[in-house]
Amino acid sequence: MTEIPSWTYTVSVRSLCEFTAKGGSLDRRFTPSATSLEGQAGQMAVYARRSPGYETELPLEGQYGQLRVRGRADGYEADVNRLEEIKTIRGPVELIPENRRVLHWAQLETYGALIAADRGLAELELALVYVDADTQHETVLRQTLTAAALQAGFEARCREFEAWAAQEAAHRAARDAGLAALPFPLGELRPGQRLLAEAVYRVAANGRCLLAQAPTGIGKTLGTLYPLLRAMPLQRLDKIGYMTCKGTGRITALEALHALREAAPAKRNAEGAPQGALRVLTLVAKEQACEHPTKACHGDACPLAHGFYDKLPAARAEAVQAGWLDAAAQRRIALQHDVCPYYLGQELLRWADVVVGDVHHAFDPYGQLYGLAQAQGWKLALLVDEAHNLIDRARDMYSTSLSLARVREAAANAPASLRAPLRGLAKELATLGHAQAADYQPLPTVPDALGEALQRVNAALGEYVQNHPLEVGPLLEFYFECLGLQRLLDRLDTHSLCDLQRANAARPLTEAPANLSLLDDGPEDDGSIDVLLSVRNIVPGHFLKERFEGLSSVTLFSATLGPPDYPRHLLGLPDDTAWIDVPAPFPAEHLTVQVANLSTRWEHRDASLNALVDVLATQYGEHPGNYLAFFSSFDYLDKAAARLALRHPHVPQWRQSRAMGDAARRGFLDRFVEDGRGVGFAVLGGAFAEGVDLPGTRLIGAFIATLGLPPVSPLQEQVRERLDAMFGADHGYADLVPGLQKVVQAAGRVLRSVDDRGWVWLMDQRYRRPEVRALLPAWWRVQ
């Protein structure tokens, strides 16, 4: 009697075909592609041309052994018995790589097998419809196959995938069993850590979002990962993403995941290896993973791209057996199988349980993790570390700029066919720059002439790169910049600010190319000025709201998140987002917080320098040790350090400098030795103001000679006015709240464990104001 397998595995048509039908070389040469919105428009254009009985988005499902295959076919026309797969493209069909066309046919044939079986069809006409995004013109490729031939192809693909599916089902069952019994690796959770863990578990169970403000020292990384892993089997999560705003957070996350992975109970196979061990993948930046940075990403140029998809199965199999897939492991496995490490990591994203990477993978418009989760229908839960940085990071993701100097440079080096539209864009930018009354000018709307000139440039560049895909060179990056600007201008609303900055050509906004003087721009652009057209996102929640709604749960945590309405409003979090403020693990008497009665306002700085450095020297004399002194700018820092050296030369000091490299940063931190003596001068919000761990007597105090407020400027005034209009006045969203978050982050360098003791000096009398004190940690006893 044949034993019936106990497992079942559901796979999408897309995933099945990508696994079984993709072969040949990797080819990442640029071919213009349609956006998702253009894809929808292309589909709608096709639907509008079909007969009234045309069926769209047909849900189809089939079974082969223990495999359940699901998907949605684009369209079926019953009166002619034709099934269609619609692909929106840019440019001629001939530019589509052959292995991608093979994949498209495999998808269509799989849908054909499912609908033929469902409706009892003897044969079926298949139509692969390519729609040009710009013209809506259709190119249709057709073939007619019998139901028997379609079923044979379907079964062949399923047989090829079946062994992998069995392995994946076994892995998930073993993984979930291990996680259900996962012990905490350190024995007992600390009190504050337990509160945090319980909150994370609750929101995972309820499919909600959480804002968790938790001070340094409670163990936030383990306190968030452990409960979410425990929730993974019960909530049937497909993946967990641990997203960081800075690289140091990834190191801490991997250390915690290694401890959790080792703590999980697991059965052993015949070779003694754990079965179902958590698969952990680090997402690595392309520039860090590329082995041949001077070679193009295609099989004719790079040996690691040649035959990539033919060699991928063996590399993929070894990787999932290894399970621990940090950057070093990905590189080792990739090079053993002669494939690209970066693109191997992209493929492994489909088979990992926990993904560690930068926040852009989840929140950027083109973020790989979020995009793939939506395409594959994954149930994805996120943890976002140091989430107070997410607002600024997300603003950058949805902002862009283009300078007149950049357009001139492109025109000077472009083929003759592109010079006219590029010079037209340069002319419109220069005209605007000359006409505006001030060097900074907000633009409520983009002038029609400028918008039309940008559209002409994008159309000309798009046509050129379509016809010369191997010759575009530096123009390609410029094309991406113009496209990005166009897309943000098309979505311009109150959430973003459009402005124009003007500068004299002798003091340009960007570096001008050496051959700029050779360019004949005509009378409207005499080269005397440079301008920068920018779209600056102010409230990223407009773009992120949909993302939070599409995720199973999200926990954002940091030592400085409050007040809770600030991230809720600016990030677009759901109304039912939970909030927890975890009590500090430190006794309040371990941190002495004092306010210095002086002013660090720009106009008072020179007059208060003597008083400021005297406070530093007095504190150092009474309690010798290592201190950090934070300032709002390098200029202010240098003045204070020089004055301290002049008035108190006995106090050792060292300084952060502009553009410090890795070695210089390590040298700065290496001065903070146990029981050391001296003052390190640093900039608030810089490399040493957060993510720096100097426990014990390596650091005993901090001086913060600023409130962290942004400089007064026309741009800052526009930001304040925009936020006031959207959320009401006197909330401090534009300046006070983000400024004091930086202050609290810097002060958090002092106490790193429950046994530490230290001092924080707030060097400005404004710290006595109620609205300022309200934004400082409640457990601080400010003297």
UniProtKB/TrEMBL annotation:
- The chain positions of domain Helicase ATP-binding read 179-445
Q: Which domain of life is it from?
A: Bacteria
Give the keywords, sorted: ATP-binding, DNA-binding, Helicase, Hydrolase, Iron, Iron-sulfur, Isomerase, Metal-binding, Nucleotide-binding
**Entry-linked InterPro entries:** ATP-dep_Helicase_C, DinG/Rad3-like, Helic_SF1/SF2_ATP-bd_DinG/Rad3, P-loop_NTPase, PDDEXK-like_dom_sf, RAD3-like_helicase_DEAD
PROSITE patterns for the chain: HELICASE_ATP_BIND_2
Q: Extract one GO molecular function annotation from the record.
A: helicase activity
The UniProt similarity line reads:
Belongs to the helicase family. DinG subfamily.
What protein am I looking at? Rad3-related DNA helicase
Q: What is the lineage of its organism?
A: Bacteria, Pseudomonadati, Pseudomonadota, Betaproteobacteria, Burkholderiales
